[in-house]
TrEMBL record:
InterPro entries: FldB/FldC_alpha/beta (IPR010327), YjiM-like (IPR047678). It comes from Ferrimonas aestuarii. NCBIfam families: double_cubane (NF040772). Pfam families: HGD-D. This is 2-hydroxyacyl-CoA dehydratase. Transmembrane segments: none annotated. Belongs to the FldB/FldC dehydratase alpha/beta subunit family.
Length: 399
């Protein structure tokens, strides 16, 4: 175990140096779900549509242009998995099971309040889950073509985005004009820029925020000003920390680039383990980290095509070939001065698990960095085992 400096804290605690700095934004994001539920209910009462989705490929910009509220409904709780397993196989990705558990149990107000669900065909498990959901929920399938370098594939994707626009107009009785699209793009670009600015706090050396803290700032409801205000407060807190000389980890702590599957509140187990072992997660490449925000939507030209192009460029493992992910990893490894790369693969996520072969080769041979793949689920049953593996990697990185 690495010896922490007095400034380093365990997740969720406050150090002596930090006691004079407001940690209100951290406390807010831990409980943001309550504010989001209240906001969604208020907007629904005002007549606004509520649109739930499960993937970064769904354009929030387009939903906002329909004057609807976009909500990411990816499940990140172990508690809802048992409900899902009454219908779904147990050897399925925990993200799918957790998400579906909220649908069948009726325990999530954000799911219950959604008027329309957008179903993205990024994953075979999700595709079949959506078919079951369609028995009781209004579903619109957004078919993602996966030849990322093929212009014909993009044209098909653009038609899919156009069809989603038509569906939103018909379902909510609105007209989505180019002006509305442009306004929504600007609004979402500002939101993406805030998220990116928080992600880029990891570039500081020594670290002024932990990976666990940054992970807490991701939220479910887009376009919610209260969330955006708290992100600005988080950035202000980080600035105050920097001025006070606060360190989130010892100066020599191994800097970890976390790649692979997304995390959410309640599924930060690997981030916690890394930082308990003396490392510091400086950036998360996944769509719960920087992947969805490192590129804005072009504010020039045809707005619908710009929206489609930005989302089509997302370097997810469902794309083939996925050179964009390797390019992003190289950029992140350089900009964040990463010492090691750790890949998180949720059990039964076959695309990330298979692509890990290529990622390991690239990281070790091209980037020259140590690499570790962690395949796990939402439970804590393997936590001590993970500590041993992560500790060994971080010790090797310090040699």
């Amino acid at each position: 175990m690495f010896s922490p400096q007095t400034t380093q804290t365990t997740p969720g605690t406050i150090s002596t140096e930090e006691s004079s700095i407001s940690t209100a934004p951290l406390e807010y994001f831990k409980k943001a779900i309550s504010s989001e539920i209240q906001y969604v209910r208020e907007q629904k009462a005002k007549g606004r549509g509520i649109v739930g989705f499960y993937c970064e490929y769904t354009p929030r910009d387009l939903i906002l242009a329909a004057d609807a509220v976009p909500i990411c409904l990816c499940g990140s709780s172990q508690s809802s998995i048992a409900d899902a397993e009454t219908l779904l196989p147990s050897n399925l990705c925990p993200l799918i099971k957790s998400s579906f558990g909220y649908v069948v149990s009726g325990k999530c107000p954000l799911v219950n309040d959604s008027d329309l669900f957008v179903a993205e065909t990024t994953c075979d498990g999700k595709k079949k889950m959506y078919e079951i959901m369609a028995r009781t929920k209004p579903i619109h399938v957004l078919e993602l073509t996966q030849k990322v370098d093929n212009e014909l594939a993009f044209k098909h994707w653009l038609r899919e985005v156009e069809d989603l626009k038509l569906k939103l107009e018909q379902h909510f009785g609105v007209e989505i004009t180019n002006d509305k699209l442009s306004q929504a793009i600007r609004k979402m670009n500002q939101e993406r820029a805030l998220i990116l600015e928080i992600q880029e706090l990891g570039k500081h050396r020594p670290a002024i925020v932990s990976g666990y803290e940054v992970a807490q700032t991701r939220y479910r409801v887009a376009g919610f000003e209260q969330n955006l205000h708290q992100m600005r407060q988080f950035l202000q807190m980080a600035k105050q920390r920097q001025h006070s000389g606060y360190q989130a980890a010892p100066a020599g702590a191994p800097r970890v680039l976390l790649t692979g599957c997304p995390t959410g509140q309640g599924t930060e187990k690997l981030i916690e383990v890394i930082e308990e072992c003396g490392g510091i997660v400086v950036v998360q490449e996944a769509c719960s980290g920087i992947k969805g925000v490192f590129e804005p939507v072009n504010e020039q030209g045809d707005p619908l095509e710009a929206i489609a192009r930005k989302h089509f460029n997302t370097p997810c493992s469902c794309m083939t070939p996925n050179q964009g992910r390797q390019d992003l990893l190289k950029r992140l490894a350089d900009e964040y001065q990463a010492d090691v790369v750790i890949e998180l693969v949720w059990q039964a996520c076959h695309t990330y698990n298979v692509e890990a072969v290529l990622i390991q080769d690239y990281v070790q041979q091209q980037l020259g960095l140590p690499y570790l793949k962690v395949e796990t689920d939402y439970s804590n049953s393997d936590r001590e085992q993970l500590k041993v593996r992560v500790q060994t990697l971080l010790e090797l990185a310090q040699c």
